[in-house]
Amino acid sequence: MGDNRAIESPPPSLSPPAGAGPGRWARLLAEWVLPPENPSGAVYGVIMMGALLAAESGRKETYAETFASAVIAACVYWLAHAYATGLGRRLRARDALTARGLAVALVHDWALIRGAAIPLLALVVAWVTGAAQQTAVDAALYSVVASLIAFELIAGILSRATRAELALEVGVGVAMGLGVLALHIVLH
Asked: Where are the domains of the chain?
């Protein structure tokens, strides 16, 4: 196990007890985005979509083309990741491919799509509200940065990190987000 147990291993359930107060929806949303069985997949999905959108120019493509290419790319990454996960398990265990084994890998790695949905949602909201396409891509990129910082905060809170540890975790989230923004700046 690595240095960040809250990301690598399933965190305790974020779901509140039945009938809990207004924080219930926030906790349910957090658990949907960061599924306890594979939170790293959701983190990977956010970063992957951020890198893809950072490469988008928004100058030649239409909104529909930008959205469609992002969704297709997310699906290809999901399928590729599930394939690699399943093949790796089969090679390690020397097992044959089965429909069940393939389904397990696809379900496990669906978290990647959940993470990718965050910047895609920001893109769609900007599109629906009439923002310029480049503004929408920028909003999606900022949602990636905010998500990475939020994920680090969640990991820190769940691990009962000290202030110094929490500062480090948030700093790592900021650095990852800045990396995505730097890619965008370099390519444009």
From this structure: 35-187
Going from the C-alpha of 138 to that of each of 58, 113, 144, the distances in angstroms are 10, 20, 10
For residue 98 the two structure tokens come to 């089965």
Q: What are phi and psi of 148, to 5 degrees?
A: -65, -40
**By CB neighbour count within 10 A (0-12 exposed, 13-18 middle, 19+ buried), where does 87 fall?**
middle
94 φ/ψ sector (left φ>0, alpha ψ -120 to 50, else beta): left
Residue 57: what pLDDT?
61
Distance, in Å, from the CA atom of 179 to the CA atom of 173, rounded to the nearest integer, reads 10
pTM of the model: 0.79
pLDDT in tens, 24-64: 766 676 777 787 788 899 999 999 999 999 987 656 678 88
Helix (H) or strand (E) holding 86: helix 63-93
